[in-house]
Every structure is written in structure tokens, then in C-alpha cells.
Write a structure and sequence with these properties.
- The structure is a single chain.
- This protein is α/β, with parallel strands linked by helices.
- It is 31% helix and 21% strand.
- It has 9 helices and 14 strands.
- α2 packs parallel to α3.
- It is globular, with a radius of gyration of 19 Å.
């Protein structure tokens, strides 16, 4: 079916509009499928990272959120492409700015044992550079994005994965949450949309197609945590001037972050049930690809940061906060624990970064 609409449109049409509250906190999280080696040599990858080293601090220094924190960025690096020079350069960005690094992985025709070995090696590689985070018992923890969207062997035909119990392998390896969805218009898209929820790992493919929503007052629920970005129809950006386009949180030169998209993300209302005043906008992009850098590091992103500040200035009840993937999940767990008020107070609620950054 066209653009796999049958997978998610029924849930979109059944949804209840998110109630606009007098007091709202919006968490902005940019999750970057960061692949600097994509269609390039190591020398080209280093040049791409150097551009981030120079231009992201310059951009971030110009803006602050409602709690005085600078823009955040999370690099999900493909661990199967580990190179110490590239990772150390990325770690330098994380130490200098409000950025963190997590795990991205492409694999195919794999097994549970093979996946576990790849994750363990990836953790060791990133650990050499002081990256990833630690949990309450000090063990290394990480966030995850699956390459080619095929989490838990969800691609029809079984390509780009092969591991049906992938969620369980991830959890055992120390993954604190997955950030792959939404993938629409890709056929790996789940029936659940606009949600923060727990799936029960199983032996069948795509076990994250069902799950229980995260709820305030319920701590440490069973299952594997998935954090989704916004997914819906954008009636203000139409194909041929007639058909609405898909809003999936992807940041591209053709569809950069804008004030209109900001309003739509707020309306789609991703939140922990029982804490509707804390909204989550988990966005994604491919920031290691040159065609996206002008948008992410240039005027389109500057205009978006200004739109956030203008929205907050015009509405005293609207507050926005730049967060990394780790900080976002900490705030999810704070909501589950019944915390209220300013979510920025809970950036380090459960998981601690091992690479202190300059967030303010």
C-alpha cells in the first residue's frame, strides 16, 4: 500500500487530539543516525566531523532553552564502522558541547549470539573514548537506533536484521531504550505511533508492534522501552498542493524544522500517560551526510531555535528544553516516578553521562 499507510494510519485516525494545556514543557531531542563514512573515505569522514567541531559550537553558543541550556545533539554512531580517529573526534564534540554519543548498528542475516557480540564490541570501542552512560549499579548503558529501521527483524522478508528476539538481546546488553521509530513511510513502521511504551520481547518478528504505554506512577514496568518521535499528516505541506505529506520527525534540507512543524509536534502530543504537560519531540536526521549539514548547522536550524524562543516569549505557559537521548529517558523515568514541575531538573535522574559536556 502507498507509503505503508495501512500500518499506521488507523491508529492516527483513532487518536484523541492532545489537549492543549496552560502550562507545557516541550523536550526537543535530535537523534542523529550519524554516518560520516556514508559514500565517502576516511579523509572525507574526518572533514565532515571537523565541520561539526567548528560549526556546532558556534551555532549552539547563540541559543538557550527555558532552563538556560544550550542546544543538544545525540550522535548514534554505527558501531560496525568503528574507527578510533573518527570516534575520538566525535568525543571531542561531546566534551565541548551539549552532545552525547549512542549506539547505531546495521546488520543482516544475523543471530542472537552474533548481535550480542557486536553490541559488546561496540560498547568496548565507545568506552575507550569515555562515551556512553552508566546506570545505578555502574554498568555501561546505551541508547539504540537500528540501521535501515529493521528493529527486531521487522522488515518484510527479513532483511537488514535476522534476529527475532532482538529486543531481549538489546536489554541484556544494557540498552536503556530504543529510538528507531517512526520509520514511515518505510514498511518497518509499527502500528503503535506517537508513544513512549514498553514492548514484551518475543521470538516472533516485530514484537514492538504492540506494547503498554509508559505511565506516571508506575516505576520499572516489565518490558523494553521504546521512545517514538511524532508521526502524522502535515496538511500545511501538501503534495501537488492537495495531498498532505507525512510528518515523521525527519530533519532534511527539503523539510527542515520550522515553526509550523513545531506546532504539529505539540499537537501530536507524545507524552508519558498521566503527565500530559511534558511533551516529547524525538526528531531524527542523518547529520554525517554533507547534504544535510547546511540545514543542521546553518540558517534553517538558527531560524528554528529562534522560533522556539519566540513561542516561549509569546506564551508564558510554554517552556522548551534541549535534551540528549539519555536525558530524555531520564525524564521519562522521572515522570513514571511521579515527578512534576520543571522536567529539566531530572536530566540525570537514572543514567549518568561519562563524558561531561558544556551544556550551559
Amino acid at each position: 500500500m502507498l507509503k505503508a499507510l495501512h500500518l499506521w494510519l488507523p491508529a492516527y485516525l483513532r487518536r484523541k487530539p492532545h489537549k492543549q494545556l496552560r502550562e507545557t514543557h516541550l523536550l526537543i531531542c535530535v537523534c542523529d543516525h550519524f554516518e560520516p563514512l556514508h559514500e565517502g573515505s576516511k579523509a572525507e569522514a574526518l572533514a565532515r566531523i571537523r565541520r561539526w567541531q567548528v560549526e556546532f559550537p558556534r551555532l549552539a553558543s547563540q541559543f538557550r532553552d527555558s532552563s538556560g541550556t544550550s542546544p543538544a545533539h545525540t550522535f548514534f554512531y554505527p558501531v560496525e564502522q568503528y574507527d578510533p580517529d573518527l570516534i575520538e573526534a566525535i568525543a571531542g564534540i561531546c566534551r565541548a558541547t551539549h552532545c552525547e554519543t549512542e549506539v547505531h548498528l546495521h546488520h543482516h542475516n544475523d543471530s542472537a549470539a552474533g548481535l550480542a557480540a557486536k553490541l559488546e564490541q561496540g560498547k568496548r570501542d565507545l568506552d575507550r573514548h569515555g562515551l556512553l552512560s552508566t546506570g545505578p549499579q555502574g554498568a555501561i548503558r546505551f541508547g539504540f537506533i537500528h540501521g535501515n529501521w529493521a528493529l527486531d527483524n521487522s522488515r518484510p522478508g527479513g532483511g537488514n536484521c535476522g534476529v527475532c528476539n532482538e529486543l531481549n538481546v538489546l536489554r541484556q546488553a544494557g540498552c536503556y531504550a530504543d529510538f528507531t521509530m517512526p520509520s514511515a513511510p518505510d514498511p518497518c513502521q509499527t502500528a503503535i505511533i506517537n508513544s513512549i511504551y514498553y514492548a514484551t520481547p518475543g521470538e516472533r518478528p516485530k514484537s514492538h508492534d504492540r506494547g503498554r504505554p509508559a505511565r506516571a506512577g508506575i516505576t520499572d514496568p516489565a518490558g523494553f522501552l521504546l521512545v517514538q518521535g511524532p508521526l502524522g499528516l502535515n496538511w500545511r505541506w501538501r503534495k501537488w498542493g492537495v495531498l498532505p505529506r507525512i510528518e515523521n520527525g525527519d530533519l532534511t534540507p527539503r523539510n527542515p524544522p520550522t515553526a509550523d512543524r513545531l506546532r504539529l509536534w505539540r499537537k501530536l502530543g507524545v507524552h508519558v500517560q498521566g503527565r500530559p504537560e511534558w511533551l516529547f519531540a524525538k526528531l531524527h536526521t542523518h547529520g554525517g551526510v554533507p547534504r544535510n549539514m547546511d540545514m543542521l548547522l546553518g540558517d534553517p536550524m538558527r531560524q528554528f531555535h529562534r522560533a522556539l524562543a519566540d513561542s516561549a516569549a509569546a506564551d508564558p505557559g510554554f517552556h522548551f528544553h534541549y535534551v540528549t537521548a539519555r536525558e530524555l529517558v531520564n525524564i521519562v523515568h522521572a515522570a513514571e516516578a511521579g515527578k512534576t514541575g520543571n522536567p529539566a531538573a531530572y536530566r540525570d535522574f537514572r543514567y549518568q553521562t561519562r563524558t561531561p559536556s558544556c551544556a550551559t
